Amino acid sequence: MKKLDKITPQNEDFARWYTDVIQNGDLMAYGATKGCIIFKPLAYSIWENIQAKMDIEFKKRGVQNVYLPLLIPESLLQKEKNHVEGFNPELATVTEVGGKKLAEKFFIRPTSETLFADLFKNEVSSYNDLPIIYNQWVNVLRWEKTTNPFLRTREFLWQEGHTIHSSSEEAIEFAKTMHKVYKDVIEENLAIPVVEGCKTDHEKFAGADITYTLESMMKDGKALQSGTSHYLGQNFTKAFDITFKNNENKLINPYGTSWGTTTRLIGALIMTHGDDRGIIIPPKIARTQVDILEIFNSKDERVHKLALELKDALLAKNIVANIDSSNKGPGFKAANSEIHGTPLRIEIGPKDIENNSVLFVRRDNLEKITSTIAEAANIASLLLQKIQDNLFESAKQRLQNNIVTVNSYQEFKEAIAAGHWVYAAFDGNGDDEVKIKEETGASTRCIPFKEPIKVSNDTCFWTNRKTKRFVLFARAY
Amino acid sequence: MKKLDKITPQNEDFARWYTDVIQNGDLMAYGATKGCIIFKPLAYSIWENIQAKMDIEFKKRGVQNVYLPLLIPESLLQKEKNHVEGFNPELATVTEVGGKKLAEKFFIRPTSETLFADLFKNEVSSYNDLPIIYNQWVNVLRWEKTTNPFLRTREFLWQEGHTIHSSSEEAIEFAKTMHKVYKDVIEENLAIPVVEGCKTDHEKFAGADITYTLESMMKDGKALQSGTSHYLGQNFTKAFDITFKNNENKLINPYGTSWGTTTRLIGALIMTHGDDRGIIIPPKIARTQVDILEIFNSKDERVHKLALELKDALLAKNIVANIDSSNKGPGFKAANSEIHGTPLRIEIGPKDIENNSVLFVRRDNLEKITSTIAEAANIASLLLQKIQDNLFESAKQRLQNNIVTVNSYQEFKEAIAAGHWVYAAFDGNGDDEVKIKEETGASTRCIPFKEPIKVSNDTCFWTNRKTKRFVLFARAY
Lengths: 477, 477
What we know:
homodimer; Translation Initiation Factor IF3
C-alpha cells in the first residue's frame, strides 16, 4: 500500500490535478520508453472492461476478430496518397535486425487500413463474399511530439474495425451503426455523455470521405474525441485494386469503413468524473465496485467475519467487493478507497455489529447512508445504480450548460477564452479553421447530428454569409 | 464460401498436409509482411478461447494484467548479459521516425523481462509490497530465419507473466503453479497431452536458472514446446538493482519468475488432432461446436424451421451451432464442415422430419448416430463430451506408444530416425547436446518430472557413465 500524496485541486491547476490523480490512483507509471506509459492493473482493468462491453456489441453485429501484422512494408503504406501524407511524420520505422540493415523498411502500424486492404484483395471476388466485417484489438504507434498519459501517448491500445461492402449505402449505414455502438457503450457504461456528429473536411481522417465522431467534455471544459467511425468510400479499394462482381455481373470496387476507440477513453473517464479526492470509476466499468473497510482500534475477528459475509452477499448479487483489513487508520483507508475511485464503500466496526448497522459512503457525492446488515447487499445494489446514473446526469448537465452560441468573432473569442464550447453557424473552409485555431486554440469538433442548443442566427460568425451548416467548436485534448 | 482444394494426405507429406489444412480451413493468410501471418477469424477465435480459459485461471491465482510498452530502449535490454546475447540476432530495431534518425535505438520486444524489471524497481521497497504478480497479453517479435504458420512466425501473440517474490522458495513454487495451470488448460481444453519437466541448462531460457516446460507430440512424431515457466532467481533483480527490506530489515534482491504461452498452441492443436479431411477443433475450444446442415433438393421451409429450433435448443445447453442453409450439395456441406474442424455436425432433411429423427456425424471418428428430434440437444451434449475425451485419449495413446528407450547411441540414432521420442539415461553436457542435434536432428526436450516409460538402464547412451538423470529427446518444431 502506497503513501498518498497531496492532490492539486482541479480549479487551481487542472493539468497538475490530472497528473496527481493518475499517479496517486496507481493507474500508470512512466517507464524507460519516452512518450509511452505503463498501464498498471487498475487502468488495465478499466480497458479490459471497456473491451468486454464493446466486443459483445461488435459480435452481435457480425464483427469477426482477426489479427494482422504489426509491421507495414514501406511500399504498402504508400499506396493511398492522402493516408500516407497524414501519418508520415509519426511513423516509427524498423530499418535493421540484429545490427544488419534490411532491404526494405517497415513501419510500425499507426493504423491498419493498408494491411486490411491488402488482405481484402484476396478475400473477395463476388457480391456473395460481401460484406466482410473484421476487427482487431491491438497496439499502434504514432510518434507524437507532446504526450499526455492515456490521452496522447506514442503507443496506445485500441480496436480498429475494417469492413468492405457491396454498396455505398450499406457501408455508410454500417459506419453509423458502429458509431451508435460506441455512443451506447460510452454513455451507458463509462457514464460519459457525448455529442454525435460529422467532422468537417478539414478535420476528417486521412483517407476518409466521411468521419463520424463522438465528442465529450472534460471537467475543464475541453473537448475529447472519444470514438470515430469512417466511411472510406472507394479510396482504399481503388488504390489497392480490390474488385468484385456485383449482382449485375459488373466488376466494381467495394465500399469501405473503418472505426476505432482507444485507451484514451481511460483519460476521458478520469477527467469527466474525477474530483479533488481522486478518480471516480463508474460502477459498470469498475473492477471493484465496493470497498469494505474494517474500522477498529485493535483487530477484531467479529468485524473481519462480517466483512467476509458482506463480500459473499455482494458477490451473490454480482457485485465485486474488496476488503481492507490492514492496520491503517480509518482516515487513511477512506482516502485510499477514494483515490482509487471505488464507487462505493462500506465502513464496519465493532459498534456497527452491536447496532446491527453498516455505513455506506458514496464516492460520487460523499453521501452517507446506513442500513441493517441483512439489507446491506440490496442497498449496495440500489446505490451503485444511483451512482452510475448520477455520474452520467451530472456530466450531461455540465455539457449542456457549457455550450453557448455567438453572433460575432469577437464573441466567439470571448466564449472560447472562458472555456465554453461554441455552437454556431459557420461556413468557413479549412484555411479558416486553421486561422481560428491559431488565434483561439479552438478547433471544429463536429457538425452535430442534433442541435445541442437552440440557435436561430444563421449568419456565419466568420464569413458573415448565411449558411445552413452549424458547427461545434472547442479547445480539445 | 470458398472452393475447397485437395488436401495432401498426412502420411504422404505431413508438412504439405499442414499447409493445405490451414489454408483450406480458412485459418490464416500470408500478407505483405514476410515471416508474419494474418490470423483469420477461425484461428483468432481459437486464440480468444485459449485466452479466456487461461485468464480465468490466472486471476484465480492473483495475477493482475498490465500493459508495458512495445519498444525497449537499447540501453535497457543490455543490462542482463545472458538475456541480450540470447535475443540479439533476432531484434527488429527502430532507428528512425518520419525519415529522421533517432538518438537512441529501440528494439521491438522479443519478451519483456527487462521492461518489467525496470518497472519493479520502483514498485517495491518492503516485503509488504511482495509478491508482485503481473501478466500481459501482447504481440512480440523475433526475426526468425525460417518460419512456419502459427508454429514459428516473426511476430506472434502470447501472454507473458512476470513476478517477483521475497524468497527463492516462493518464486520456484509460483513458477511451478503457473506451469501446472498451463498443463491443465492445455490438456482439459485443447485435449493435448503433455510431458512435464525441466529443460537442461543448454536448452533453458536466456536469463533463467530453471525452465519448466510442457512438451507435446504432433502426429508426425515431432515434439512441440507448448508452454514454459521460468525461475529467474536474482538474475534480473541484481542486474536492475531491485531491492527490498525483508522481515529482518535486511536489504536483498527479490526472486523472479516469468512464464508464457503463445499462438503456437493453435499449430499444436492442428497437428495433434487434424486428419486427412482437415483440422479438428476440440469442443471446449471451438467457436462453433455444431454445424447444422440443411439437406434438400429444393429449399424446404420445414427443414429450415427445424434447423432454427435445434440451434435454439442447443444454445439453451450452452452449445453454439451454425446453420448451413446454402444451396450447395450435401457432399460439399459435409466437407466444408469437416475442413473447418467443427467437432459435430447434424444433417437434417425432409425425410428426417417425417421420421422424427436427426443424424449426427462426429468429426473425430466419423461415427454416425441418430436420435429423435426432441432428444437431439441432449445427445449433442453427450457426444461433444465424448469427442473431447476421445481426442485427448487418442493423442495420449499415440504419445505413450511412441516413446522408446535405447541402450546405445546407435539405437538412439535409429529410434530418432524412425520418428520416436527417446527417454534414456543421459549425463552429457551442452556441447554433447549440440553434437547429437547436428547428427540426428534431436534435441533434449526435458528432464521429465515423472518417467513417461519405465527405464532401468542407468548408463548414459552417450558417455557410458552411470547417471541418475533421465532425459527425453526428440526432433522438434
